[in-house]
């Protein structure tokens, strides 16, 4: 733990890069959506979208390398404490997750209270599930749209399929039929399960916390320890 | 925490308004059900139901404004501690949740023991799931009933669909086919997952508590710490 | 808690009644199964089964009343500490749950170690889920067998349906189509969710406990606090 | 607990047998896969695979007996502390689980940090789910492939079915129709639920741990206790 002291140069870089990187991630997400969804329009738009995606990814890579250098650590040790950054580099669609960090940074700079522990886990994991689901819907739509015997025919179907998959409801009215569609589906199920498990687990813990605090707010002569009477 | 001292005026208002507001919420729920389910009968009943809903919502709004004023705080800070009241104002169908608070208040006034922590979470979250499910069944029934190719044809189908959705079983024998039906379904899945996760999580914690207490009830010479022997 | 001292007379009754009541519960379960499954054979067997069920239920009622009297408490207070007994009286199919208590009693009498806390929760909740599922399969099979358009046609189908329902997988290849079948299904889903949630939650806690203990078993110079290195 | 002192002879055996046993388990898994999947090729390969499976199982049995002897305990007490070894003997497909132990042993020998508690539970339970799923896919494929009316026709279908079953999504586009296929499915559902419950539970706990640590890393003048502000 003693190796985790705040490096001043690294901190300054992170503070300055925060907002530009956030806008870059929005551009990346929009470009990816355009590339997949605009299959009916002029081909040039899709090429522009691809170019934007590569450009933004180079921005993310540059940021990662700069931070690795500024930290003065070796890659192996840097990854141990910055696993989220590396994950975001590999799956840039998760980039907007940093939105939450941005909010936390801004609130702290203004000396305002940040969200509670459970609320932050819920927001992080929930936002992660939304972004994962959006990317999954795009990818599955791209794969299944033209497959013979497919049931996922519109992007709306793909979004509906993602929602019933991530919540593990799984009606089966629309399902992927191609091999690649199913591989994406399995990845989505596993990540979705973990993320939504974190969301519901934290919600449950938070609800119990709220009720416990309500108990503590009562005047002492009226208070009983939680669970004393059942 | 020091800002949360009981304001006397606010407390008095809350105690007096408790029962009337509870009856108002029952009227609201009944009016909404009449509005959706009574599509075969005279149109005038549905208009009366709509009028009742608006009236009851005005009652809830008045109560919210009065309490905001009595608290002497600004909206931003008031919302932080009274998030449940604001939620109930937006989704008045959740209003009967206050039934549990009413029970707690009554029990405490009579100096009788209240439910344990986990039991209250289970009752709150479970009742929330029931009300959410009822409202969802009404809304989906209203949307799907006349859609071409729909499988949700009766209100019984809608209730059955809500049950298999909230528990994430999802047989898929009845599913929404319209865009609005699916949007309602997604909202239902997400809220239902969180609420039922809280219910099962609390049930599990409560069961472990019961077993731990059983261990502690044994005579000391016979007692072993939990988990000491496996 | 001070009211819960062991009453000697009650204790003696419970120790003596344990084994006979356990056999009675097995007879009850068998009689119920015979009543539902033996629809092809002579009618007289089903009548005998019904008679056995009533007789066994009277035995359970007698035991409950005797224990209520021996405890010297009023019904209200007795229920608070003996909720499991009352539940078992209403749903006698859950009776074999006492098997675990029997095992605990026997192990303790022989001065042998009992199962750990989580193991007992898993066994209790898991056994409860099995019994609930068995009873649910019988009831749904009875309701659906002769319904028009039914997909649950054999008892094997009913058991398969119960398994996919309790685990919330819900393929939808066999589903109840009658109103009563669906009502039983909803009851099964809710109870099953809670019980299996308790099983998986306890399994998870137990696994973490096992791993924590493994950490503690290491020689001290080699030990690191759990989680210190990620 | 005092009976669990490290036996030197047993320790030495375990250290020496670790790597050979790991390779043996890989051979076993490969042989089982060959036996099931190679139904189109020459019969002799499947006989060789069966022979390899029996041979490897004898290796596992020998290891178990040697360790039982070296421990100097009776079978009953040995099982209590080595339950994982006994389970692995009965279900040799779970053998590669020891891979994690191997990693832990190697890391500790090199004085490098091991994975945190939650990470190890996730890896163990996740790897167990993968192996269980692989074995289940093989077994169900073997059973269903030639059944009339089957929907699981290729090994790819079987793997897809296992994924949607273990995550409890259950679309129902492919389902087992034979009695044996359904029995394997039920076993898979129950074990899968428990293992994936452990994975998502640990992931959730680990995420909360990560966020808590992030709170603690802030400079003290800026730090607020988690949850203080909601």
Written account of the structure:
The structure is a homotetramer of 230-residue chains. Chain A is an all-alpha fold. Chain A has eight helices and no strands. The first copy, chain A, starts with 7 loop residues before the first helix and ends in a 13-residue tail after the last helix. At the A-B interface, helix 7 and helix 8 of A face helix 6 and helix 8 of B.
Structural class of chain A: mainly alpha
What is the total number of structural domains of chain A?
2
Separation of the first and last Cα atoms of chain A: 43 Å
What portion of the residues of chain A fall into strands of 2 or more residues? Answer: under 5%
Number of strands of chain A: 0
Please compute the radius of gyration of chain A using only Cα atoms. 22 Å
Percent of residues in helices of chain A comes to: over 70%
Number of discrete helical segments of chain A = 8
* Level-1 CATH class name of the largest domain in chain A: Mainly Alpha
Subcellular location (chains A, B, C, D): Membrane
Keywords (chains A, B, C, D): Ion channel, Ion transport, Membrane, Potassium, Potassium channel, Potassium transport, Transmembrane, Transmembrane helix, Transport
Protein name (chains A, B, C, D): Two pore domain potassium channel family protein
Pfam families (chains A, B, C, D): Ion_trans_2
